[in-house]
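Weekly sync notes, structure subgroup
Attendees: PM, AL, DS (notes)

Item 1: joint prediction request from the bench team. They want all two components modeled as one assembly rather than separately. Inputs as received:
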Amino acid sequence: MTRHIVEEAQLREVVGLDLTTVDVIERAFKALKEQAVVMPPVLSMELPAVNAEVDIKTAFIPGFDGFAIKVSPGFFNNPSLGLASLNGLMIVLSAKTGLVEAVLLDNGYLTDVRTAAAGAVAAKYLAPDHVGTLCVMGTGVQARLQAQAAALVRNIGEIKVWGRDYEKAVVCASELEASLGIPSSAIADAEEGVRTSQLVVTTTPSAEPLVDASWLHPGLHITAMGSDQEAKNELAAECLRDADLYVCDRVSQAALLGELRTARAHGFMDSDPAELSDVVTGRHRGRRDQSDITIADLTGMGVQDTAIASHALSMISRSA
Amino acid sequence: MTRHIVEEAQLREVVGLDLTTVDVIERAFKALKEQAVVMPPVLSMELPAVNAEVDIKTAFIPGFDGFAIKVSPGFFNNPSLGLASLNGLMIVLSAKTGLVEAVLLDNGYLTDVRTAAAGAVAAKYLAPDHVGTLCVMGTGVQARLQAQAAALVRNIGEIKVWGRDYEKAVVCASELEASLGIPSSAIADAEEGVRTSQLVVTTTPSAEPLVDASWLHPGLHITAMGSDQEAKNELAAECLRDADLYVCDRVSQAALLGELRTARAHGFMDSDPAELSDVVTGRHRGRRDQSDITIADLTGMGVQDTAIASHALSMISRSA
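Output from the run, pasted for the record:
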């Protein structure tokens, strides 16, 4: 057996955020309902002494040659050292023997891509058909990738970028306009962004809600993907109550780490909601009408990691 | 930063089962009580479809430059393919930045060594001073290593090896006599082994008790290290009840995965027992008398992985 040690640069060459990758992640969502996937709860380690956290995710998907174990460290003092906060790697073990097939030293790149691709899947199935305006909240790597992901599945008329730091929103909008060729502008008012958009993607690590329920309007889809830790919260609890449809990626995770946690803490959403994979597989009809208000709450799942890692390995084999 | 990708052969060159390694693991047990160690519950994934399981352990020890994330796959159909069941690797992340410092492709070697070294720590603190006879139950890699570990901390007069398969016990005894220079023999009767020994180490994956409480006798120490999954059990529940002292490595783990689980299922051991690290740090006096009957129940901890991985990296730096 060849064991691959793969660096980030090589992974960037073979895996990008495109429709192929979106299809890979869409199939991972399907597998979650249609196959006997084994996906244990996230191993989450808080390291307050060094202002850090480490998450470990994994999932075994029957029929795949291998399965990934993904280690995601977030060390939030890193920017003061000139380093990115988020890093990490993926290990791929043989599904037949458990032997190490590959170590993907991606520094979080594959996680970024599979997270954005899940946003594309959510937008594909839940956003209104016509997205005149996309509002991206947040100005980091994931804000850029989510805009790119949305543009893969909808014809976006214009992009509005909101950030806590307006200057960063200006830079982000300028870069998006250049890379996607879609008119993009920074906005200072989050309310304006939500009220005037048909698709909103929140990508922040906020601990306080950014989106008020009074801003929701017919024909809106929101994907909230910033909340993946107990302390994070991007949508006011009433948003989940008031939407025509709320789905998450995994109920057990969203109840601990996602918007669902906060909503339940406010007494809403007692019964278990549908999952995005129910919509992808047709078990749930999803958006019933163009005027529906829908929300997708994505915390990130091990099946996405196994899917993107397997895809990366097959692309590497093909290019070898 | 140099990032190390280290193969098993190189790890075997720099890390062995010796008093240096026992000291490294003893200090890990100390750290558990004396420092603000962060050690989350084991991530355990059962894969019945392929007769396999994967465990992931980690621990952050303040003052260490890095911390290990250890992936231990057990694929129990492997022997039919001519492969070992147990494999795996350790990732070492910087404790300051979370960046990957090393990937130790040890195929489980460091786990074998740190597990045996914990047995040495248990024997050092809990076995009677004079161990005329050591009985090893089981005939695999860990049976051999536990005998070697015991011989590091006690002058062993003779070794008796018991196994389900007598032929394998004969081979194991012969190898131990050759490698350790201690008279060793296979025995067919587990009861004889326990009744005539001062130190017993059980190293099997048994699901049924191997040791009956009626066999216990004054001046006996048992280390049970085979039980690390819910279905495993090496000591009859009454052994824990009848011993003068029972300690485990981590109460929260032993209550789920160790002998403590079975004993509690039988209605014994309601209150939380001491941990081996309490004895190592002098918080618990341990054996009070040479005639005491003591038991140590070891399920394996992330602190051992971080300690042995850090030791391996420092040895590699030194040899570079």
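Discussion: Chain A touches chain B at residues 3, 5, 36, 38, 40-41, 43-47, 49-50, 52, 54, 56, 58, 60, 62, 69, 71, 73-75, 78, 81, 83, 87-89, 91, 93, 95-100, 103, 105 (CB under 8 Å).
Action: AL to compare against the crosslinking data before next sync.
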